[in-house]
Structure formats: C-alpha cells, structure tokens
Design goal:
Layout lengths: L1 H23 L1 H9 L7 H8 L4 H11 L5 H23 L16 H9 L8 H11 L1 H5 L5 H12 L4 H11 L3 H20 L5 H6 L12 H17 L9 H22 L2 H14 L3 H10 L5 H13 L3 H4 L23 H10 L2 H13 L8 H13 L3 H11 L6 H10 L3 H6 L1 H9 L12 H11 L4 H19 L1
Helix pairs in contact: 1-2, 1-5, 2-15, 3-4, 4-7, 5-6, 5-7, 5-13, 6-13, 6-14, 9-11, 10-11, 10-13, 15-16, 15-17, 16-17, 19-20, 20-21, 21-22, 22-23, 26-27
C-alpha cells in the first residue's frame, strides 16, 4: 500500500504539472524556447562548462530546445517536478522501517514552490535543474565526511550556489566539529571559484547563481527561499514520526498544498504578461483567430497587445470593421517603434515583413535578439534575420546565420533547405513568400524613421497596388492620427 500510495500521489503531481503547462500556460514554454538556441558544438559546450553551474545550465538548455513542441515541453516540466519530489524524499529517508506515508506529502513542497516561482517568465530552467542535481547529491554529501573537500568544488561547478543544500544538510545531520571547517572551506571555494571562473560577472550574480534568472543583476526573493525550504523539507521528512492513522493527515496536507499552490499561482502569474505572451505564441503558429477570441474575453491595455490584436484582425480581414471593439493606443497600436526588449518588437517585425519592409524587419529582429539579457541567441529570430538577407540577395550574410541554425536540432532541416535554395537564384525566385516580398519591397533607397512610417506605407502601395496590407494599414493609421489629434 505504501508503494502504491507514493506512485499514485507522485503521478498526480506529474499529471497536474503536465496539464498546467500543456493547456494553461503553453506560451511560457514557447517564450523560453525562443530566447535561447542550443547548439551541438564543442564551442557551445565549452562556454557553458567554463562557468560555475555550467553543466546544469547546459543540461537545462538542452531540455528547453524541446519546448519547440508544447507537448514535449509540458512532459519535461512534469518529469522534472516528479524527479525533484522523489529526490527530496530519497534525500530525507534515513530509515527503511518507518511508515513512509506519514510525511511523504511534504516532499511535494519544493516542486510546488518551483511551479509558483516559474510564474516569473524570466526564471530559467537551469534553476530547477541545478536544484535537482544538488538534492541528488544529498546522500553522497551526507555520508562523505572529509570527502566533502572534493565534493564541494565539484558540486559548486555542477550546480552553482544551490550546492549549499546538501552541504548544510550534511552538517545538520553529522553535527561534528569538522563541520565548522567544512563551512569555512565552502566559503573559500565559492570565493576562489568566483575569482578564477566568473570574475567578469557581478559578485551578487556569481554567489547567488549565474543563469538561474534571465535578467542580469536581479535577485528574486524566491530564488533564495526555495533552497531554504527544500532543506527544511528534507529535514522534516527525515524525522522519525509515526502516526497511528497516517492516511488522514496525508490527505489533509495534500489538499492544503493544492489550495495553497492554486492561490499562489493566481498571485504570481501576472495576467497581462501571460496574455501578451499568449498572443505572441499564437501569432507564431499563425492562429490569428484564436488571438481575437482571447482578446474578446480579456485584452491587456498595453501597446504590445494592441499591435498583436490589430495584426490578427487584419489577417482575418476585420481590421477596418472591428478596430474600435478592442483597446487602441494610437498609431503605436499598429506598429510599435523599436523598443529594444526581447518581446515588444516581434509582432511589429512580423507585420513589417509581410508588408514588404525587409530592412526594417531586419532591424527589429536584430534588436529583439540582442535584447535577450543573458546574451543568448534565438532560433526564431535568427531564422527571420536570415530570410531578410535572402530577400535582399545578401546570400553570404544569410549563409552565416543558416550555418548557426544548422547546428541546432529543430531549425536544422529548415536551415539546410535554405542553404540549398540560395545556391540557385531561380529557387529563391520561385519561392512564393520570397518572390512576393521582393515584388512589393521598396525600389529606391531612402532614410527611414518611425514618424514617417505611414508615408512609407503609401509609397509601398503606390509602387505595387497588390500590397493591400500597406494600403489598409495606411488608412487605419490616418484614422488613429486624427483621433489622437482630436483628443
């Protein structure tokens, strides 16, 4: 019964986490995938392994590339949640004879806390992966005694500062005089490792975790709280507590944790942020009608959402008719000026591409990629940058980006097909998308600027009457300008 109980409850956790990412927040998985590009190269591996916590970071980015498929992404997140829960229980287990149902449910706390923390979309998968590796080292660290002298630097290199979880657990359990030496030695390892491997980073980032969080020089409170709670959970689960009726308190605790997680998720998952991410994810998969349906129920009042909804209205042939039904913020709700962050410019870049402005599209997507704060590249953004170069006939430049994409998993086939295409100009001319963009793009060079974007749309339409998008966006732009002037 004990084994069946553990299997059922762990499976329930995995099913809940899978459903959470699969149907409630698949846009978060897409956001993580499009803000990194995992490459199967020795240089890429060497760059990751050169930093403390690098192996965990490399492993997490290997997993994130599979978020290209939301089913695979949701499954990976579910398996990681189960793995963390099971490892917490394994690290806590000090006796094989005690009733294993008594405090088993407490081992779910770190996994549920991690789910709450990931409501912040800038939390990287390397953080839960590093914590899982650290918890996995708990049994080895606890029984190591003086062997901890080599396990500590190895663990710090593998996981980063969360290695403190097994180190402190070993000290709590042994309570010997040499533990004071171990703690002092740990501080020396951290300092020496920082000076040798990560001196180019701010000390706060190095000591609290490189690449745990995408935003540089930021330290969310939960990033410190979760390892502390994990350590406390392992200690509590390791207590030799025997209950006469363990099933009842177990069920009560399980329900309490479920309700607490639900309430915490409601507080930490900002609705506007995740709705904006959902628009971007749906546009990426050309599900324009779904964006409109979501906006009918709830639309964030920000320029990014307005730009996304208006773009989808156009793609469904409803822009002029239904413009006033949704939130508007002037002309910025049609095309945003380049904001230079890793999200805002994406829809604007997509519509400028379809309108026939590959040079502006190139600028937007280059800025978007360079705005990824932890310096990663993006398969999605590199693909569009390569296409802009192909349309312009800059095949040597395009090939450089395609070579990079060819070293990835999910973009490899596309990149190789484009590399073959640019070897023969007739193949490029025969491609319906590239041929259309070439036919409607500007025929003359001139200096561009955002305030003259409506004039550029007029030029596009006047030189090619088939450019219906430029014509309609120009018309709506004038309507919104008149509305702004009248306010």
């Amino acid at each position: 019964m004990n084994r069946l109980y553990r299997i059922l409850t762990s499976s329930l956790l995995g099913a809940a986490v899978f459903a959470f990412w699969m149907w409630l927040f698949p846009q978060d998985l897409s956001y993580q995938e499009q803000n990194q590009l995992f490459l199967f190269t020795w240089d890429y591996l060497g760059q990751r392994l050169a930093l403390p916590g690098g192996p965990a970071d490399w492993l997490s980015e290997f997993l994130v590339q599979f978020f290209y498929s939301r089913t695979a992404g949701a499954l990976i997140m579910a398996l990681l949640a189960i793995l963390l829960q099971r490892l917490v229980w394994r690290a806590a287990k000090t006796s094989s004879k005690r009733d294993e149902r008594s405090l088993y449910v407490l081992s779910f706390i770190p996994s549920l806390l991690m789910l709450v923390y990931q409501g912040d979309v800038e939390v990287l998968l390397s953080y839960p992966v590093a914590l899982i590796l650290a918890v996995a080292l708990c049994p080895a660290m606890t029984g190591a005694r003086w062997n901890r002298l080599w396990l500590i630097p190895l663990g710090w290199w593998l996981t980063g500062p969360v290695i403190l979880v097994p180190i402190l657990l070993s000290c709590i359990r042994s309570r010997r005089w040499e533990d004071l030496i171990i703690l002092f030695y740990t501080g020396l390892v951290f300092f020496a490792g920082y000076r040798l491997l990560a001196a180019q980073y701010p000390a706060r980032d190095a000591f609290f975790g490189l690449n745990y969080y995408r935003l540089v020089e930021s330290l969310p409170v939960l990033q410190i709280v979760i390892p502390a709670i994990t350590l406390l959970t392992i200690w509590l689960c390791g207590l030799e507590i025997r209950l006469s009726r363990p099933l009842v308190p177990g069920i009560v605790t399980f329900i309490a944790l479920a309700l607490g997680t639900f309430a915490s998720v409601r507080m930490t998952y900002d609705k506007d942020t995740h709705e904006t991410l959902a628009y971007d994810w749906l546009i990426r998969h050309e599900r324009y009608a779904d964006v409109i349906t979501r906006a009918e129920k709830y639309q964030p009042h920000n320029p990014v959402s307005a730009c996304s909804v208006n773009f989808c209205l156009f793609m469904n042939g409803q822009l002029d008719a239904r413009l006033t039904e949704f939130y508007q913020c002037g002309t910025e709700g049609l095309v945003l000026p380049s904001i230079r962050d890793n999200l805002s410019d994406i829809t604007s870049g997509e519509l400028l591409w379809m309108m026939g402005m590959p040079n502006l599209t190139l600028q937007y997507f280059f800025d978007v990629q360079e705005s990824i704060q932890n310096g990663r590249k993006s398969g999605r953004f590199l693909s569009r940058i390569a296409e802009c170069n192909i349309v312009n006939g800059w095949y040597d430049r395009a090939e450089k980006y395609l070579d990079i994409l060819s070293q990835s998993l999910f973009y490899r086939k596309w990149a190789r097909s484009r590399k073959a295409m640019i070897q023969d100009e007739s193949l490029v001319a025969a491609d319906p998308v590239y041929a259309y963009i070439r036919s409607v793009r500007f025929q003359d060079d001139f200096v561009t600027f955002y305030d003259g974007l409506d004039l550029m749309m007029a030029i596009l339409y006047n030189q090619n009457k088939n450019n219906f998008m430029a014509a309609q966006y120009y018309t709506v732009w004038q309507r919104l300008k008149q509305t702004e002037a009248g306010q």
